[in-house]
């Protein structure tokens, strides 16, 4: 007697009496019964009235056969086996199943898109064999793919001129439904698309017309892809990387985390096929948000808030670039979801975390299991138009133009900017709150050389409606204080002369560097030319800079650059 497959009780089998074995004309599977069966070569059963060829290279390939992908398993009724314990179902992929006639090499059926249904813990599609006029002398190969990867193979032969099939490799019956339909079920675990089985992996298929969020198994990295970012469906893969340094040439301090699947902050993001084959530009049509949980150890709060995700931009012109910080509400990097108080300080929520909370409704986060050494309370990410390798580091340079917030929002003319850039480690104050335009506020003022509403904000001690130029004698200086000491600071200055009854040209602007005790480390002055000039001061341990028009000479200021580490000399 032939035993049924494990887990296939919903598809009854039909058996031939052993007394009929050897009688090739015997039809032992009655047509009036509700099911027909599939048997394998070598099984004692219904061979009907023909001999069978297993075809070229007949095989089964999955996690349990022929060294197949460890994250892919054929399920009943095709094979009597279960999904592997401990794996996470990869439900965001868009797998495709093809049926190939091995006699001719032709693909006779492709099942994809809506034909492949996502169940609670497996994928399922139906092959209506009656529609394909199967050849009883040929072997047919069922292939499952996701992205550009072949995940599984199962070969079957036709029995009884197409009314039955059999598995050519295992020797097991596989049932068909009464309408000669073969339910094809399979499990794909998260990790099927990654290169290493021991990495923290995330994967999914991105469709052009819908937004997609993908998070890795351990919840340490993820991506949000808005609708319209791709022109065609594409498989997106996230995988932790164990190379150290993570990004060669990235200035210290860097925070790549540990090697391995847990506590890693070095990740590769890529698509299959590559974006160059998906979008005409070779980039995403709309920026995507990359999120990684930083492993930052005992780094203090003020410095941790300055961290940025850096990207190794590969291609004809390799470069390292810092990503604009944006919230990544799809990650919960602190297991407590809330506090930065795990190092003995009182619990509080960082600005980055607060932003993430407000935007959490963008996606529905899944349960995450980030390292307990992660200190940023909610996911923080970066905005990019392409994929490569990403990791966390302290930025070596920051540029402020007073038209945008750190989150790339607009700064309206007239807004105070004293603490707008505090997350970047820079705050602004005034040395003489009792001078002209009195008060402590530092403003973004668009009353510049071209007059009111010039189209760009300058930094000024005067509010909107008054000219943005100022001098140290009547107004005082603007002071920029850095949380992390700088080695260089630059600002764009435009001398505007002397405001007398009869305006006079001439006069200079200046910037001077201060150490932590307020001592002047260096000073640079402009020329008297009334054109924009970049003024820079350099030195070790610059804790602050201050600037103004010299004496009673007026000047306009914009575009502050703060540099922590100078780039290497070419």
Overview in brief:
With 570 residues, the protein is an all-beta fold. It is 2% helix and 35% strand.
Give your account of this protein's structure:
The structure is a single chain. By secondary structure, the protein is mainly beta. It folds into three domains: 171 residues, no CATH class; 195 residues, Chondroitinase Ac, Chain A, domain 3, CATH 2.60.220; 164 residues, Jelly Rolls, CATH 2.60.120. 2% of the residues lie in helices and 35% in strands. It is built from two helices and 33 strands. The strands form seven sheets. Strands 13, 16, 17, 18, 20, 21 and 24 form a seven-stranded antiparallel beta sheet that branches. Strands 25, 26, 29, 30, 31, 32 and 33 form a seven-stranded antiparallel beta sheet that branches. Strands 2, 4, 5, 8, 9 and 10 form a six-stranded antiparallel beta sheet that branches. The longest helix has 8 residues. The protein is elongated and about 110 Å long. The N and C termini lie far apart (79 Å).
């Amino acid at each position: 007697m032939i035993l049924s497959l494990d887990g296939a009780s919903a598809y009854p089998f039909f058996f031939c009496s052993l007394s009929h074995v050897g009688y090739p004309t015997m039809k032992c599977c009655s047509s009036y019964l509700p099911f027909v069966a599939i048997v394998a070569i070598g099984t004692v059963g219904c061979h009907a009235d023909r001999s069978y060829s297993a075809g070229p290279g007949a095989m089964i390939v999955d996690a349990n056969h022929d060294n197949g992908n460890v994250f892919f398993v054929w399920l009943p009724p095709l094979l009597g086996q279960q999904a592997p314990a401990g794996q996470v179902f990869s439900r965001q992929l868009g797998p495709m199943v093809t049926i190939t006639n091995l006699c001719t090499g032709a693909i006779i059926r492709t099942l994809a898109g809506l034909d492949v249904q996502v169940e609670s813990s497996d994928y399922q599609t139906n092959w209506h064999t009656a529609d394909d006029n199967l050849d009883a002398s040929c072997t047919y190969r069922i292939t499952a793919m996701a992205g550009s990867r072949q995940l599984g193979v199962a070969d079957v032969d036709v029995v009884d001129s197409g009314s039955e099939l059999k598995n050519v490799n295992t020797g097991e019956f596989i049932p068909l439904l009464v309408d000669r339909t073969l339910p094809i079920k399979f499990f794909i675990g998260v990790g099927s698309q990654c290169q290493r089985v021991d990495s923290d992996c995330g994967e999914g298929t991105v469709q052009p017309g819908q937004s997609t969020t993908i998070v890795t198994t351990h919840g340490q990295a993820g991506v949000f892809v808005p609708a319209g970012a791709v022109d065609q469906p594409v498989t997106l893969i996230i995988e932790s990387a164990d190379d150290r340094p993570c990004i060669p040439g990235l200035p210290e301090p860097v925070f790549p985390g540990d090697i391995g699947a847990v506590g890693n902050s070095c990740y590769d993001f890529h698509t299959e096929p590559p974006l160059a084959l998906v979008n005409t530009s070779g980039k995403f049509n709309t920026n995507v948000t990359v999120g990684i949980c930083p492993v930052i150890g005992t780094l203090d709060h003020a410095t941790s808030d300055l961290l940025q995700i850096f990207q190794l931009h590969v291609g004809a012109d390799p470069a390292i670039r810092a990503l604009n910080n944006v919230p990544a509400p799809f990650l919960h990097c602190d297991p407590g979801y809330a506090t930065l108080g795990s190092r003995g300080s009182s619990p509080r929520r960082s600005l980055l975390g607060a932003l993430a909370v407000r935007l959490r409704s963008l996606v529905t986060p899944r349960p995450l299991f980030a390292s307990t050494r992660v200190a940023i309370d909610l996911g923080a990410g970066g905005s990019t138009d392409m994929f490569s390798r990403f990791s966390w580091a302290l930025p070596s340079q920051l540029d402020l133009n007073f038209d945008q917030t750190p989150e790339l929002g607009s700064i309206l003319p007239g807004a105070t900017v004293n603490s707008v850039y505090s997350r970047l480690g820079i705050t602004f104050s005034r040395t003489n709150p009792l001078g002209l335009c009195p008060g402590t506020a530092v403003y973004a003022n668009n009353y510049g050389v071209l007059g009111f509403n010039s189209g760009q904000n300058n930094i000024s001690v005067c509010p909107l409606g008054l000219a943005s130029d100022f001098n140290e004698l009547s107004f005082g200086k603007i002071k920029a204080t850095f949380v992390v000491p700088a080695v260089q600071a630059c600002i764009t200055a435009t001398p505007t002369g002397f405001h007398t009854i009869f305006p006079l040209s001439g006069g200079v602007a200046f910037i001077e560097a201060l150490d932590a005790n307020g001592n002047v480390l260096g000073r640079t002055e402009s020329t008297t030319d009334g054109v924009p000039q970049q003024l820079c001061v350099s030195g070790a341990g610059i804790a602050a800079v201050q600037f103004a028009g010299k004496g009673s000479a007026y000047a306009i200021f914009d575009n502050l650059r703060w540099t922590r580490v100078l780039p290497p000399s070419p």
